[in-house]
Every structure is written in structure tokens, then in C-alpha cells.
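Lab meeting tomorrow. Look over both lines:
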Amino acid sequence: MLNSGLWKKSRHPNLFFEFLTWIGFAIGGLNDYISILGFMGPIFLFIIVDRLTLPLTEKHMKESRGELYE
């Protein structure tokens, strides 16, 4: 079920790959020193996902699915 394999290590793979996509855009936009600011978007995305989205999702899943989610 969902207790083995990749899912056991990564409960939210869609968020991980969204983050990788934005990192790829930032890398693709590198051409001088000021373009390093392109990494601010992925950094803010990581902070929002890590501090807001994941805790809320985990809380909702535990409430709605109980022990099946744990």
C-alpha cells in the first residue's frame, strides 16, 4: 500500500517536483550576477510549502483518514 517504496520516504512528491521545476527555471535564467535573484522564487516557494502547506495537509489527512494515513 502506501507504507512502502518511494511513498514511505516522500509523502508529497508533487510538491517536490514542482520545487525542482522552479529551480530548473532559475538555473535556466542564469546569465549574469543579477540573475541569481531568480532563485528567490524557489526559496520562497520552499519556505511556504515547508511552513504552511505541508503542516496543514498533514493535519487534514490525519483528521480525515486517521490511522490509515499514519
In short: The CA atoms of residues 4 and 10 lie 10 Å apart.
